From TrEMBL:
Gene3D superfamilies: Anticodon-binding domain (3.40.50.800), Bira Bifunctional Protein, Domain 2 (3.30.930.10). It comes from the Bacteria. Keywords: Aminoacyl-tRNA synthetase, ATP-binding, Cytoplasm, Ligase, Nucleotide-binding, Protein biosynthesis. This is Proline--tRNA ligase. The lineage of its organism: Bacteria, Bacillati, Cyanobacteriota, Cyanophyceae, Nostocales. Consists of three domains: the N-terminal catalytic domain, the editing domain and the C-terminal anticodon-binding domain. GO terms for cellular component: cytosol.
Length: 604
Protein backbone atom coordinates (compact mmCIF):
# COMPACT_ATOMS: atom_id res chain seq x y z
CA UNK A 1 0.00 0.00 0.00
CA UNK A 2 1.15 3.49 -0.85
CA UNK A 3 0.72 6.02 1.90
CA UNK A 4 -0.14 8.67 -0.68
CA UNK A 5 -3.27 6.67 -1.48
CA UNK A 6 -4.22 5.69 2.05
CA UNK A 7 -6.48 7.38 4.56
CA UNK A 8 -3.38 8.19 6.55
CA UNK A 9 -3.94 10.87 9.18
CA UNK A 10 -1.74 11.04 12.25
CA UNK A 11 -2.14 13.44 15.16
CA UNK A 12 0.73 15.28 16.74
CA UNK A 13 -0.86 15.69 20.15
CA UNK A 14 -2.49 13.31 22.54
CA UNK A 15 -6.28 13.27 22.16
CA UNK A 16 -7.91 14.81 25.21
CA UNK A 17 -10.17 11.92 26.16
CA UNK A 18 -7.56 9.16 26.06
CA UNK A 19 -6.01 8.19 29.38
CA UNK A 20 -3.71 5.25 28.82
CA UNK A 21 -0.76 5.07 26.41
CA UNK A 22 -2.18 2.41 24.08
CA UNK A 23 -5.43 4.31 23.65
CA UNK A 24 -3.60 7.57 22.92
CA UNK A 25 -1.24 5.90 20.48
CA UNK A 26 -3.90 4.03 18.52
CA UNK A 27 -5.86 7.26 18.11
CA UNK A 28 -2.81 9.37 17.26
CA UNK A 29 -1.46 6.85 14.77
CA UNK A 30 -4.79 6.63 12.96
CA UNK A 31 -5.62 3.02 13.83
CA UNK A 32 -8.98 3.75 15.43
CA UNK A 33 -11.53 6.52 15.54
CA UNK A 34 -14.06 7.11 18.28
CA UNK A 35 -17.62 7.19 16.97
CA UNK A 36 -19.45 7.21 20.30
CA UNK A 37 -18.95 6.12 23.89
CA UNK A 38 -17.29 2.71 23.75
CA UNK A 39 -17.82 2.61 19.97
CA UNK A 40 -14.85 2.67 17.64
CA UNK A 41 -14.14 2.38 13.94
CA UNK A 42 -11.27 0.03 13.16
CA UNK A 43 -9.43 1.86 10.38
CA UNK A 44 -7.44 -0.08 7.75
CA UNK A 45 -4.24 -0.44 9.79
CA UNK A 46 -6.16 -1.63 12.83
CA UNK A 47 -8.21 -4.01 10.78
CA UNK A 48 -5.04 -5.67 9.54
CA UNK A 49 -3.83 -6.11 13.13
CA UNK A 50 -7.20 -7.55 14.14
CA UNK A 51 -7.12 -9.94 11.20
CA UNK A 52 -3.68 -11.14 12.23
CA UNK A 53 -4.71 -11.70 15.81
CA UNK A 54 -7.85 -13.48 14.60
CA UNK A 55 -5.77 -15.70 12.37
CA UNK A 56 -3.48 -16.74 15.22
CA UNK A 57 -6.53 -17.43 17.37
CA UNK A 58 -8.14 -19.40 14.54
CA UNK A 59 -5.05 -21.51 13.92
CA UNK A 60 -4.71 -22.40 17.58
CA UNK A 61 -8.41 -23.22 17.89
CA UNK A 62 -8.45 -25.34 14.75
CA UNK A 63 -5.38 -27.22 15.97
CA UNK A 64 -7.44 -28.50 18.92
CA UNK A 65 -10.19 -29.77 16.63
CA UNK A 66 -12.63 -26.97 17.40
CA UNK A 67 -14.76 -25.87 14.45
CA UNK A 68 -15.47 -22.31 13.40
CA UNK A 69 -19.03 -21.13 12.84
CA UNK A 70 -20.91 -17.85 13.03
CA UNK A 71 -23.87 -17.40 15.35
CA UNK A 72 -26.51 -14.66 15.16
CA UNK A 73 -25.96 -11.43 17.05
CA UNK A 74 -29.68 -10.80 17.26
CA UNK A 75 -30.99 -13.15 19.93
CA UNK A 76 -34.63 -13.83 20.86
CA UNK A 77 -35.41 -12.92 24.47
CA UNK A 78 -37.17 -16.26 24.93
CA UNK A 79 -33.85 -18.10 24.94
CA UNK A 80 -32.54 -15.85 27.70
CA UNK A 81 -35.73 -16.30 29.66
CA UNK A 82 -35.24 -20.05 29.48
CA UNK A 83 -31.75 -19.80 30.92
CA UNK A 84 -33.00 -17.35 33.51
CA UNK A 85 -30.61 -14.59 32.45
CA UNK A 86 -32.93 -12.14 30.66
CA UNK A 87 -33.69 -10.03 33.72
CA UNK A 88 -30.15 -10.02 35.10
CA UNK A 89 -28.80 -9.01 31.71
CA UNK A 90 -31.36 -6.36 30.81
CA UNK A 91 -32.45 -4.83 34.13
CA UNK A 92 -30.60 -2.67 36.65
CA UNK A 93 -26.90 -2.89 35.84
CA UNK A 94 -27.50 -5.48 33.12
CA UNK A 95 -25.26 -5.08 30.09
CA UNK A 96 -27.41 -6.45 27.29
CA UNK A 97 -28.82 -4.08 24.69
CA UNK A 98 -32.42 -5.09 24.15
CA UNK A 99 -35.02 -4.04 21.64
CA UNK A 100 -38.51 -4.77 20.42
CA UNK A 101 -39.13 -5.62 16.77
CA UNK A 102 -42.11 -4.71 14.57
CA UNK A 103 -43.94 -7.84 15.70
CA UNK A 104 -43.56 -6.72 19.30
CA UNK A 105 -41.02 -9.46 19.97
CA UNK A 106 -38.21 -8.79 22.43
CA UNK A 107 -34.66 -9.32 21.23
CA UNK A 108 -31.19 -8.77 22.64
CA UNK A 109 -27.89 -7.99 20.96
CA UNK A 110 -25.50 -10.78 21.87
CA UNK A 111 -23.14 -10.00 24.77
CA UNK A 112 -22.23 -13.72 24.78
CA UNK A 113 -23.70 -16.85 23.18
CA UNK A 114 -24.37 -19.61 25.72
CA UNK A 115 -28.13 -19.48 25.09
CA UNK A 116 -27.81 -19.67 21.31
CA UNK A 117 -25.29 -22.50 21.34
CA UNK A 118 -27.24 -24.47 23.95
CA UNK A 119 -30.35 -24.21 21.77
CA UNK A 120 -28.40 -25.62 18.84
CA UNK A 121 -27.00 -28.41 20.99
CA UNK A 122 -30.43 -29.21 22.36
CA UNK A 123 -31.79 -29.60 18.87
CA UNK A 124 -28.84 -31.27 17.16
CA UNK A 125 -26.96 -33.37 19.71
CA UNK A 126 -28.76 -36.62 20.42
CA UNK A 127 -26.15 -39.21 21.24
CA UNK A 128 -22.86 -39.67 23.05
CA UNK A 129 -21.47 -40.62 19.63
CA UNK A 130 -21.60 -36.95 18.60
CA UNK A 131 -19.46 -35.90 21.57
CA UNK A 132 -17.22 -34.18 22.43
CA UNK A 133 -17.98 -31.21 20.20
CA UNK A 134 -16.48 -27.74 20.21
CA UNK A 135 -17.76 -24.81 18.15
CA UNK A 136 -16.31 -21.33 18.12
CA UNK A 137 -16.77 -18.02 16.36
CA UNK A 138 -14.95 -14.73 15.98
CA UNK A 139 -17.49 -11.98 16.10
CA UNK A 140 -18.61 -8.61 17.32
CA UNK A 141 -20.15 -8.59 20.79
CA UNK A 142 -22.34 -5.90 22.29
CA UNK A 143 -22.27 -4.96 25.95
CA UNK A 144 -23.71 -1.83 27.45
CA UNK A 145 -20.79 -1.50 29.85
CA UNK A 146 -21.30 0.76 32.84
CA UNK A 147 -17.92 2.39 32.28
CA UNK A 148 -16.72 2.01 28.72
CA UNK A 149 -13.17 3.28 28.65
CA UNK A 150 -9.60 2.99 27.45
CA UNK A 151 -10.57 2.63 23.79
CA UNK A 152 -10.79 -0.99 22.70
CA UNK A 153 -10.01 -2.23 26.21
CA UNK A 154 -13.59 -1.82 27.38
CA UNK A 155 -15.81 -1.10 24.42
CA UNK A 156 -19.54 -1.44 24.05
CA UNK A 157 -18.98 -3.11 20.71
CA UNK A 158 -15.88 -5.32 20.49
CA UNK A 159 -14.52 -8.43 18.86
CA UNK A 160 -14.42 -11.69 20.76
CA UNK A 161 -13.57 -15.26 19.95
CA UNK A 162 -15.99 -17.38 21.92
CA UNK A 163 -16.06 -21.14 21.90
CA UNK A 164 -18.40 -23.63 23.54
CA UNK A 165 -17.72 -27.31 24.08
CA UNK A 166 -20.04 -30.21 24.90
CA UNK A 167 -19.14 -33.39 26.74
CA UNK A 168 -20.42 -36.62 28.18
CA UNK A 169 -18.49 -36.29 31.43
CA UNK A 170 -16.07 -34.28 33.57
CA UNK A 171 -13.06 -36.10 32.22
CA UNK A 172 -13.82 -35.11 28.67
CA UNK A 173 -14.62 -31.52 29.73
CA UNK A 174 -11.31 -31.29 31.60
CA UNK A 175 -9.40 -32.56 28.57
CA UNK A 176 -10.81 -29.83 26.36
CA UNK A 177 -10.21 -27.30 29.13
CA UNK A 178 -6.55 -28.35 29.22
CA UNK A 179 -6.36 -28.10 25.42
CA UNK A 180 -7.77 -24.59 25.66
CA UNK A 181 -5.30 -23.68 28.38
CA UNK A 182 -2.54 -24.67 25.99
CA UNK A 183 -4.17 -23.02 22.97
CA UNK A 184 -4.57 -19.74 24.87
CA UNK A 185 -0.99 -19.91 26.06
CA UNK A 186 0.11 -20.39 22.46
CA UNK A 187 -2.06 -17.55 21.14
CA UNK A 188 -0.68 -15.03 23.59
CA UNK A 189 2.90 -16.13 23.21
CA UNK A 190 2.64 -16.00 19.41
CA UNK A 191 1.11 -12.53 19.63
CA UNK A 192 4.25 -11.43 21.46
CA UNK A 193 2.62 -10.73 24.84
CA UNK A 194 3.94 -11.11 28.39
CA UNK A 195 1.11 -12.73 30.33
CA UNK A 196 0.15 -14.86 33.28
CA UNK A 197 -2.57 -17.51 33.57
CA UNK A 198 -4.41 -17.02 36.85
CA UNK A 199 -7.11 -18.77 38.83
CA UNK A 200 -10.31 -16.84 38.36
CA UNK A 201 -13.63 -16.45 40.06
CA UNK A 202 -16.27 -18.62 38.47
CA UNK A 203 -19.18 -16.97 40.18
CA UNK A 204 -21.68 -18.91 42.20
CA UNK A 205 -21.36 -21.92 39.87
CA UNK A 206 -18.18 -22.58 41.79
CA UNK A 207 -16.00 -25.43 40.75
CA UNK A 208 -12.30 -25.32 40.20
CA UNK A 209 -12.49 -24.67 36.51
CA UNK A 210 -11.84 -21.11 35.55
CA UNK A 211 -8.63 -19.51 34.36
CA UNK A 212 -8.06 -15.97 33.18
CA UNK A 213 -5.21 -14.99 30.92
CA UNK A 214 -3.81 -11.67 32.04
CA UNK A 215 -1.58 -9.46 29.97
CA UNK A 216 0.70 -7.77 32.47
CA UNK A 217 0.49 -3.98 32.31
CA UNK A 218 0.14 -1.10 34.75
CA UNK A 219 -3.06 0.02 33.04
CA UNK A 220 -4.74 -3.31 33.77
CA UNK A 221 -8.06 -3.13 35.59
CA UNK A 222 -7.42 -6.41 37.38
CA UNK A 223 -5.09 -7.20 40.24
CA UNK A 224 -3.21 -10.47 40.19
CA UNK A 225 -1.65 -12.04 43.29
CA UNK A 226 1.13 -14.54 42.76
CA UNK A 227 4.04 -16.24 44.47
CA UNK A 228 7.57 -16.13 43.18
CA UNK A 229 7.91 -19.92 43.15
CA UNK A 230 5.45 -19.88 40.23
CA UNK A 231 3.05 -22.22 42.02
CA UNK A 232 0.26 -19.81 42.69
CA UNK A 233 -1.38 -17.00 40.73
CA UNK A 234 -4.94 -15.80 41.09
CA UNK A 235 -7.16 -12.87 40.35
CA UNK A 236 -7.58 -10.93 43.60
CA UNK A 237 -11.33 -11.61 43.27
CA UNK A 238 -10.62 -15.28 43.78
CA UNK A 239 -7.30 -15.34 45.66
CA UNK A 240 -6.90 -17.09 48.98
CA UNK A 241 -4.07 -16.64 51.46
CA UNK A 242 -3.12 -16.85 55.11
CA UNK A 243 -3.56 -13.58 56.96
CA UNK A 244 -0.91 -12.49 59.43
CA UNK A 245 -1.38 -14.03 62.88
CA UNK A 246 -3.64 -12.16 65.26
CA UNK A 247 -1.96 -10.57 68.25
CA UNK A 248 -2.99 -11.92 71.63
CA UNK A 249 -5.58 -9.74 73.31
CA UNK A 250 -4.58 -7.71 76.36
CA UNK A 251 -8.17 -7.82 77.59
CA UNK A 252 -9.00 -10.61 79.97
CA UNK A 253 -12.46 -9.73 81.19
CA UNK A 254 -15.58 -8.80 79.32
CA UNK A 255 -16.31 -5.12 79.70
CA UNK A 256 -18.09 -2.31 78.01
CA UNK A 257 -15.86 0.69 77.32
CA UNK A 258 -16.73 4.27 76.67
CA UNK A 259 -15.08 4.89 73.27
CA UNK A 260 -16.38 8.19 71.96
CA UNK A 261 -15.55 9.19 68.37
CA UNK A 262 -14.20 5.79 67.37
CA UNK A 263 -16.34 4.90 64.37
CA UNK A 264 -13.32 3.57 62.50
CA UNK A 265 -11.00 0.70 63.38
CA UNK A 266 -8.02 3.02 63.30
CA UNK A 267 -9.48 5.46 65.81
CA UNK A 268 -10.70 2.62 68.01
CA UNK A 269 -7.32 0.90 68.11
CA UNK A 270 -5.61 4.17 68.90
CA UNK A 271 -7.89 4.81 71.82
CA UNK A 272 -7.79 1.28 73.23
CA UNK A 273 -4.12 0.79 72.29
CA UNK A 274 -4.96 -2.55 70.75
CA UNK A 275 -4.16 -4.25 67.48
CA UNK A 276 -6.78 -4.30 64.70
CA UNK A 277 -6.22 -8.08 64.64
CA UNK A 278 -8.04 -8.25 68.00
CA UNK A 279 -11.12 -6.52 66.68
CA UNK A 280 -14.21 -8.07 65.14
CA UNK A 281 -15.49 -5.47 62.73
CA UNK A 282 -19.05 -5.67 61.52
CA UNK A 283 -19.78 -4.38 58.04
CA UNK A 284 -23.24 -3.78 56.73
CA UNK A 285 -24.21 -4.66 53.16
CA UNK A 286 -27.43 -4.52 51.29
CA UNK A 287 -28.27 -6.91 48.50
CA UNK A 288 -31.17 -7.07 46.09
CA UNK A 289 -32.20 -10.43 44.69
CA UNK A 290 -33.66 -10.91 41.23
CA UNK A 291 -37.19 -11.15 42.62
CA UNK A 292 -36.88 -7.65 44.04
CA UNK A 293 -36.29 -8.76 47.64
CA UNK A 294 -33.84 -6.60 49.60
CA UNK A 295 -31.80 -8.42 52.23
CA UNK A 296 -29.51 -6.78 54.78
CA UNK A 297 -26.25 -8.54 55.41
CA UNK A 298 -23.94 -8.20 58.38
CA UNK A 299 -20.42 -9.40 57.76
CA UNK A 300 -18.15 -9.93 60.78
CA UNK A 301 -14.49 -9.91 59.83
CA UNK A 302 -11.18 -9.31 61.60
CA UNK A 303 -10.44 -5.61 62.01
CA UNK A 304 -7.31 -5.59 59.86
CA UNK A 305 -9.00 -7.39 56.96
CA UNK A 306 -11.21 -6.29 54.11
CA UNK A 307 -14.25 -7.91 52.56
CA UNK A 308 -13.86 -9.37 49.09
CA UNK A 309 -17.17 -8.42 47.52
CA UNK A 310 -16.93 -11.04 44.80
CA UNK A 311 -16.63 -13.79 47.39
CA UNK A 312 -19.43 -12.18 49.38
CA UNK A 313 -21.64 -12.07 46.30
CA UNK A 314 -20.98 -15.76 45.66
CA UNK A 315 -22.01 -16.63 49.22
CA UNK A 316 -25.18 -14.61 48.90
CA UNK A 317 -25.99 -16.22 45.57
CA UNK A 318 -25.67 -19.65 47.17
CA UNK A 319 -28.47 -18.78 49.60
CA UNK A 320 -30.65 -17.02 47.01
CA UNK A 321 -33.17 -19.87 47.09
CA UNK A 322 -33.85 -19.11 50.79
CA UNK A 323 -35.36 -15.85 49.58
CA UNK A 324 -37.19 -17.35 46.63
CA UNK A 325 -34.65 -15.96 44.19
CA UNK A 326 -32.00 -17.21 41.77
CA UNK A 327 -29.39 -14.50 41.64
CA UNK A 328 -28.34 -11.15 42.95
CA UNK A 329 -28.88 -7.99 40.97
CA UNK A 330 -27.20 -5.53 43.33
CA UNK A 331 -24.82 -5.56 46.27
CA UNK A 332 -23.46 -2.52 48.06
CA UNK A 333 -22.75 -0.81 51.32
CA UNK A 334 -25.97 1.14 51.95
CA UNK A 335 -25.51 4.88 52.23
CA UNK A 336 -27.48 7.05 54.65
CA UNK A 337 -30.28 7.61 52.16
CA UNK A 338 -30.83 3.95 51.32
CA UNK A 339 -30.60 3.04 54.99
CA UNK A 340 -33.56 5.26 55.66
CA UNK A 341 -35.67 3.10 53.36
CA UNK A 342 -35.37 0.10 55.65
CA UNK A 343 -34.31 1.14 59.17
CA UNK A 344 -36.93 1.20 61.88
CA UNK A 345 -34.67 3.24 64.18
CA UNK A 346 -31.26 4.75 63.62
CA UNK A 347 -28.34 2.34 63.62
CA UNK A 348 -25.30 2.70 65.91
CA UNK A 349 -23.05 2.95 62.86
CA UNK A 350 -19.41 2.31 63.69
CA UNK A 351 -20.43 0.57 66.91
CA UNK A 352 -22.36 -2.42 65.59
CA UNK A 353 -21.88 -5.83 67.22
CA UNK A 354 -22.32 -9.22 65.52
CA UNK A 355 -25.65 -9.62 67.30
CA UNK A 356 -27.26 -6.33 66.32
CA UNK A 357 -31.02 -6.85 66.68
CA UNK A 358 -33.20 -7.62 63.69
CA UNK A 359 -35.61 -5.02 65.10
CA UNK A 360 -33.55 -2.35 63.40
CA UNK A 361 -35.04 -3.55 60.13
CA UNK A 362 -38.42 -2.23 59.21
CA UNK A 363 -39.49 -5.38 57.40
CA UNK A 364 -42.03 -5.31 54.60
CA UNK A 365 -42.89 -7.38 51.53
CA UNK A 366 -39.77 -6.23 49.71
CA UNK A 367 -37.38 -6.12 52.66
CA UNK A 368 -36.48 -9.24 54.56
CA UNK A 369 -36.95 -8.73 58.30
CA UNK A 370 -33.75 -10.46 59.45
CA UNK A 371 -30.08 -9.85 58.86
CA UNK A 372 -28.06 -12.47 57.06
CA UNK A 373 -25.12 -12.87 59.44
CA UNK A 374 -21.91 -14.04 57.86
CA UNK A 375 -18.78 -14.57 59.89
CA UNK A 376 -15.46 -14.60 58.12
CA UNK A 377 -13.14 -17.38 59.23
CA UNK A 378 -10.52 -14.82 60.34
CA UNK A 379 -12.62 -14.01 63.39
CA UNK A 380 -13.49 -17.52 64.50
CA UNK A 381 -10.38 -18.21 66.59
CA UNK A 382 -10.18 -14.78 68.20
CA UNK A 383 -10.24 -14.78 71.97
CA UNK A 384 -11.16 -11.85 74.19
CA UNK A 385 -11.83 -9.70 71.15
CA UNK A 386 -13.02 -6.14 70.82
CA UNK A 387 -16.22 -5.31 68.98
CA UNK A 388 -19.09 -2.84 68.92
CA UNK A 389 -21.55 -2.53 71.84
CA UNK A 390 -24.57 -1.77 69.63
CA UNK A 391 -24.58 1.68 71.20
CA UNK A 392 -23.07 4.79 69.67
CA UNK A 393 -19.83 5.69 71.44
CA UNK A 394 -19.28 2.29 73.06
CA UNK A 395 -17.36 -0.89 72.37
CA UNK A 396 -16.96 -4.13 74.29
CA UNK A 397 -13.61 -5.80 75.01
CA UNK A 398 -12.71 -9.29 76.20
CA UNK A 399 -15.60 -10.81 74.25
CA UNK A 400 -15.74 -14.44 73.13
CA UNK A 401 -17.77 -16.51 70.72
CA UNK A 402 -19.98 -18.93 72.56
CA UNK A 403 -20.08 -16.59 75.57
CA UNK A 404 -21.28 -13.08 74.79
CA UNK A 405 -21.84 -13.77 71.08
CA UNK A 406 -23.32 -16.73 69.34
CA UNK A 407 -21.22 -17.91 66.43
CA UNK A 408 -23.62 -18.00 63.47
CA UNK A 409 -23.76 -21.17 61.45
CA UNK A 410 -22.45 -19.48 58.35
CA UNK A 411 -18.67 -19.27 58.65
CA UNK A 412 -17.26 -18.30 55.29
CA UNK A 413 -14.14 -17.11 53.50
CA UNK A 414 -14.98 -13.64 52.29
CA UNK A 415 -11.75 -11.85 53.05
CA UNK A 416 -9.66 -10.16 50.45
CA UNK A 417 -6.25 -11.70 50.02
CA UNK A 418 -3.58 -9.07 49.60
CA UNK A 419 -0.01 -8.26 48.83
CA UNK A 420 2.32 -9.52 51.54
CA UNK A 421 0.01 -12.27 52.82
CA UNK A 422 1.46 -15.76 53.20
CA UNK A 423 0.57 -18.34 50.57
CA UNK A 424 -1.66 -21.26 51.45
CA UNK A 425 0.40 -23.84 49.56
CA UNK A 426 3.57 -22.74 51.34
CA UNK A 427 3.51 -20.19 54.15
CA UNK A 428 7.14 -19.32 53.46
CA UNK A 429 6.03 -17.79 50.18
CA UNK A 430 4.43 -14.35 50.25
CA UNK A 431 2.00 -12.92 47.73
CA UNK A 432 3.18 -10.38 45.20
CA UNK A 433 0.85 -8.15 43.26
CA UNK A 434 0.73 -7.17 39.59
CA UNK A 435 -1.74 -5.38 37.36
CA UNK A 436 -3.25 -7.34 34.51
CA UNK A 437 -5.52 -6.89 31.52
CA UNK A 438 -7.86 -9.86 31.19
CA UNK A 439 -7.64 -10.92 27.56
CA UNK A 440 -8.93 -14.45 27.86
CA UNK A 441 -11.11 -16.51 30.14
CA UNK A 442 -11.69 -20.26 30.01
CA UNK A 443 -14.41 -21.76 32.07
CA UNK A 444 -15.90 -25.13 32.97
CA UNK A 445 -19.61 -24.41 32.94
CA UNK A 446 -20.84 -27.87 33.81
CA UNK A 447 -24.57 -28.32 33.33
CA UNK A 448 -25.74 -24.81 34.22
CA UNK A 449 -27.15 -24.02 30.78
CA UNK A 450 -27.93 -27.52 29.57
CA UNK A 451 -30.04 -28.14 32.65
CA UNK A 452 -31.85 -24.82 32.51
CA UNK A 453 -32.57 -25.22 28.79
CA UNK A 454 -33.05 -28.98 28.64
CA UNK A 455 -30.09 -29.85 26.43
CA UNK A 456 -29.55 -33.57 26.88
CA UNK A 457 -27.98 -36.51 25.08
CA UNK A 458 -28.39 -40.26 25.34
CA UNK A 459 -25.46 -42.11 26.88
CA UNK A 460 -24.15 -45.58 26.04
CA UNK A 461 -26.60 -47.13 28.48
CA UNK A 462 -29.48 -45.42 26.74
CA UNK A 463 -30.06 -42.94 29.58
CA UNK A 464 -30.85 -39.28 28.96
CA UNK A 465 -28.25 -36.97 30.55
CA UNK A 466 -27.63 -33.23 30.56
CA UNK A 467 -24.67 -32.14 28.42
CA UNK A 468 -21.58 -30.91 30.22
CA UNK A 469 -20.32 -27.63 28.82
CA UNK A 470 -17.22 -25.46 28.76
CA UNK A 471 -16.86 -21.94 27.37
CA UNK A 472 -13.75 -20.11 26.28
CA UNK A 473 -13.41 -16.42 25.35
CA UNK A 474 -10.66 -14.22 23.99
CA UNK A 475 -11.09 -10.50 23.57
CA UNK A 476 -9.54 -10.11 20.14
CA UNK A 477 -9.75 -6.32 20.04
CA UNK A 478 -8.69 -6.00 23.67
CA UNK A 479 -5.74 -8.30 23.01
CA UNK A 480 -4.62 -6.16 20.07
CA UNK A 481 -4.63 -3.00 22.16
CA UNK A 482 -2.90 -4.80 25.06
CA UNK A 483 0.01 -5.49 22.75
CA UNK A 484 0.46 -1.74 22.37
CA UNK A 485 0.10 -1.21 26.10
CA UNK A 486 3.05 -3.53 26.56
CA UNK A 487 5.17 -2.28 23.72
CA UNK A 488 5.72 1.38 22.92
CA UNK A 489 8.24 4.16 23.49
CA UNK A 490 8.13 7.95 23.47
CA UNK A 491 7.92 7.97 19.67
CA UNK A 492 5.09 5.54 19.21
CA UNK A 493 3.95 1.96 18.92
CA UNK A 494 6.35 -0.99 18.62
CA UNK A 495 4.27 -3.84 17.21
CA UNK A 496 5.33 -7.42 17.82
CA UNK A 497 6.22 -8.65 14.31
CA UNK A 498 3.52 -11.36 14.27
CA UNK A 499 0.63 -8.91 14.60
CA UNK A 500 2.05 -5.73 13.04
CA UNK A 501 -0.22 -4.39 10.29
CA UNK A 502 2.76 -4.40 7.92
CA UNK A 503 6.24 -5.84 8.34
CA UNK A 504 8.12 -3.07 6.61
CA UNK A 505 7.84 0.50 5.38
CA UNK A 506 9.93 1.87 2.54
CA UNK A 507 10.49 5.55 3.11
CA UNK A 508 11.54 7.88 0.30
CA UNK A 509 13.25 10.85 1.97
CA UNK A 510 12.89 13.06 -1.10
CA UNK A 511 10.29 12.25 -3.71
CA UNK A 512 11.85 14.72 -6.11
CA UNK A 513 14.90 12.49 -6.37
CA UNK A 514 14.10 10.14 -9.24
CA UNK A 515 16.66 7.56 -8.20
CA UNK A 516 15.36 7.37 -4.63
CA UNK A 517 11.85 6.93 -5.96
CA UNK A 518 12.87 4.31 -8.48
CA UNK A 519 14.77 2.16 -5.97
CA UNK A 520 12.01 2.51 -3.40
CA UNK A 521 9.35 1.40 -5.84
CA UNK A 522 11.44 -1.51 -6.96
CA UNK A 523 12.01 -2.66 -3.36
CA UNK A 524 8.37 -2.10 -2.50
CA UNK A 525 7.25 -4.37 -5.32
CA UNK A 526 9.88 -6.98 -4.69
CA UNK A 527 9.22 -7.17 -0.95
CA UNK A 528 5.46 -7.52 -1.36
CA UNK A 529 5.94 -10.20 -3.99
CA UNK A 530 8.19 -12.06 -1.57
CA UNK A 531 5.50 -11.96 1.12
CA UNK A 532 7.05 -9.17 3.15
CA UNK A 533 4.01 -6.97 3.78
CA UNK A 534 5.31 -3.52 2.92
CA UNK A 535 4.11 0.06 2.88
CA UNK A 536 5.59 2.72 0.63
CA UNK A 537 5.81 6.23 2.03
CA UNK A 538 5.69 8.14 -1.23
CA UNK A 539 4.01 11.22 0.21
CA UNK A 540 5.23 14.67 -0.64
CA UNK A 541 6.39 15.38 2.91
CA UNK A 542 9.66 16.23 4.59
CA UNK A 543 11.81 13.23 5.50
CA UNK A 544 11.53 14.10 9.20
CA UNK A 545 7.74 13.92 9.06
CA UNK A 546 7.91 10.54 7.38
CA UNK A 547 10.34 9.14 9.93
CA UNK A 548 8.17 10.38 12.78
CA UNK A 549 5.08 8.79 11.27
CA UNK A 550 6.84 5.49 10.65
CA UNK A 551 7.92 5.43 14.30
CA UNK A 552 4.44 6.38 15.48
CA UNK A 553 2.62 3.62 13.58
CA UNK A 554 5.21 1.14 14.77
CA UNK A 555 6.09 -0.86 11.65
CA UNK A 556 8.93 -3.26 12.64
CA UNK A 557 11.37 -2.42 9.83
CA UNK A 558 11.98 0.86 8.01
CA UNK A 559 13.91 0.93 4.75
CA UNK A 560 15.21 4.32 3.69
CA UNK A 561 16.36 5.02 0.14
CA UNK A 562 18.62 7.87 1.22
CA UNK A 563 22.27 8.71 0.81
CA UNK A 564 23.43 5.09 0.91
CA UNK A 565 21.97 4.43 -2.52
CA UNK A 566 25.08 6.06 -3.97
CA UNK A 567 26.89 2.91 -2.76
CA UNK A 568 24.14 0.57 -3.94
CA UNK A 569 22.75 0.28 -0.41
CA UNK A 570 19.74 1.33 1.66
CA UNK A 571 19.45 2.03 5.35
CA UNK A 572 17.35 -0.48 7.30
CA UNK A 573 16.21 0.45 10.80
CA UNK A 574 14.65 -1.90 13.31
CA UNK A 575 11.84 -0.06 15.10
CA UNK A 576 12.16 -1.85 18.44
CA UNK A 577 15.91 -1.42 18.93
CA UNK A 578 16.52 1.49 16.53
CA UNK A 579 19.46 -0.51 15.24
CA UNK A 580 20.34 0.78 11.82
CA UNK A 581 22.43 -0.84 9.15
CA UNK A 582 23.17 -0.40 5.47
CA UNK A 583 22.25 -3.34 3.33
CA UNK A 584 23.03 -3.99 -0.32
CA UNK A 585 19.85 -3.33 -2.27
CA UNK A 586 19.85 -6.76 -3.89
CA UNK A 587 19.95 -8.42 -0.44
CA UNK A 588 17.22 -6.44 1.27
CA UNK A 589 14.36 -8.79 0.48
CA UNK A 590 16.04 -12.00 1.60
CA UNK A 591 17.44 -10.30 4.70
CA UNK A 592 14.02 -9.05 5.75
CA UNK A 593 12.43 -12.40 4.99
CA UNK A 594 14.92 -14.01 7.34
CA UNK A 595 14.48 -11.44 10.10
CA UNK A 596 10.72 -11.66 9.98
CA UNK A 597 10.71 -15.44 9.94
CA UNK A 598 13.15 -15.48 12.85
CA UNK A 599 11.11 -12.97 14.88
CA UNK A 600 7.94 -15.00 14.39
CA UNK A 601 9.66 -18.35 14.94
CA UNK A 602 11.10 -17.12 18.24
CA UNK A 603 7.54 -16.98 19.59
CA UNK A 604 6.21 -20.14 18.00
P1 LIG B 1 -14.37 -8.03 32.23
O1 LIG B 1 -14.20 -8.67 33.58
O2 LIG B 1 -13.14 -7.33 31.74
O3 LIG B 1 -15.60 -7.21 32.10
P2 LIG B 1 -15.69 -10.35 31.35
O4 LIG B 1 -15.34 -11.26 32.45
O5 LIG B 1 -17.01 -9.74 31.32
O6 LIG B 1 -14.58 -9.22 31.22
P3 LIG B 1 -15.89 -12.49 29.44
O7 LIG B 1 -17.36 -12.52 29.47
O8 LIG B 1 -15.12 -13.58 30.10
O9 LIG B 1 -15.39 -11.08 29.98
O10 LIG B 1 -15.42 -12.29 27.92
C1 LIG B 1 -14.30 -12.91 27.34
C2 LIG B 1 -13.26 -11.88 26.94
O11 LIG B 1 -13.82 -10.82 26.17
C3 LIG B 1 -12.59 -11.18 28.11
O12 LIG B 1 -11.57 -11.98 28.62
C4 LIG B 1 -12.09 -9.91 27.47
O13 LIG B 1 -10.83 -10.13 26.85
C5 LIG B 1 -13.10 -9.62 26.40
N1 LIG B 1 -14.01 -8.54 26.79
C6 LIG B 1 -15.01 -8.60 27.70
N2 LIG B 1 -15.65 -7.43 27.79
C7 LIG B 1 -15.04 -6.59 26.91
C8 LIG B 1 -15.25 -5.23 26.52
N3 LIG B 1 -16.24 -4.50 27.05
N4 LIG B 1 -14.43 -4.70 25.58
C9 LIG B 1 -13.45 -5.43 25.02
N5 LIG B 1 -13.21 -6.71 25.35
C10 LIG B 1 -13.99 -7.29 26.26
MG1 LIG C 1 -14.10 -12.95 32.60
Amino acid sequence: MRLSQMLFVTLRDDPADAEIPSHKLLLRAGYIRRIGSGIYAYLPLMWRVLQKVSQIVREEMNATGAQECLLPQLQPADLWKESGRWDTYTKAEGIMFSLIDRREQQLGLGPTHEEVITTIAREMIRSYRQLPLHLYQIQTKFRDEIRPRFGLMRGREFIMKDGYSFHVDETSLKETYQDMYQAYTNMLRRSGLAFRAVEADSGAIGGSGSTEFMVLAEAGEDEVLYTEDGKYAANVEKAVSLPIDAEASQFTTYQKHDTPGTDSIEKLCQLLKCSPTQVVKNVLYQTVYDNGMTVLVLVSIRGDQEVNEVKLQNELTKIAADYGAKTIIALDVPNVETQQTWTAKSLPLGYIAPDIADEYIKGDKQIHSQFVRLVDQTTVDLKNFVTGANETGYHVVGANWGEQFKLPIQIVDIRKARLGDRAVHNPEQTLFSARGIEVGHIFQLGTKYSQAMGATYTNEQGEEKPLLMGCYGVGVSRLAQSAVEQSYDQDGIIWPVAIAPYHAIVTIPNINDAQQVQIAQQLYTELNQAGVETLLDDRDERAGVKFKDADLIGIPYRIVTGRAIANGKVEVVERATRKSQEIVIAEVTTTLQQWIAAAIAAKN
